[in-house]
Amino acid sequence: MLRDRMPFHFIKRRIIWYAISILIILPGIISLFTQGVNKGIDFTGGSLLDVKFNQATTIEQVRDVLQDFELADASIQSSGEADYIIKTRELSEEENKSVVAALDSELGGVTLQRSERVGPVIGQELIWKAIYALLIAAVLMIVYITWRFEFKQGIATIVAMLHDLLVVLGIFSIFQIEVDSTFVAAILTIVGYSINDTIVIFDRIRENMLNRKKGEALEDIINASLWQTMARSINTGLSVIMVLVAMLLMGGTTLRGMVLALLIGVISGAFSSVCNASPIWFDLKRLERRAKPGTARA
After folding, report:
1. Residues 153/202, Cβ–Cβ less than 8 Å
2. Is the CB of residue 225 less than 8 Å from the CB of residue 212?
């Protein structure tokens, strides 16, 4: 039997995987309801200044200058020894010029590398577009997987995808990491990555079902399929993770939020594809058998 050659049985340990997922997701859900996420100016509206000083400058020095403009609560991120990204409430053109001029005169010269202004209306539109994109992606995934496999596998895939999204959103909420438009791009990328790994596993399950031995249990076929695709899942995941770690360390402040979201999502996706999607499908099949007593084992 296939199960005799496997180090351990994934399906028989599915309660452990479910418990791990709940323990990871639950604190994030509580945080989302209590403190929400730290929305960047793409969502709330505001101004962004990317400045480079001619000499080494500290965050405290920059904040002291901003205090004169009642911007002491501005977000100031260092992206180098003399490079800073300043995020404030929405500034008018005159206020923007005054802030840059003050930084230039009081801190030994400054170069304005980027200046952006985003209104809150654009932020709300971005949120709704992201929600619509996720809903459309979920529906298309269910349709595709139902056509290629079966409806219950489509449901299992969507549950695993939601697991990954909740993990990312929960961690960003707990640690109040700022989310912006690049975070939305990361979320949509995670959705694609998550389904890709799950489809590979379901495809192997289908192949093994066609070559099923007489009397072989469904849980053993699923377990064997998971182990047969394990090397591929690990190699793919590690390749992506190594690139993302390099980008996180070397990519600078602008990309940090997006790369961190992708890194969390890829790790979560590798776990959910193996430990959530297939076990959930197995439990759905068990419920189907219980609802139809006397039918053959699925």
Report:
1. yes
2. no
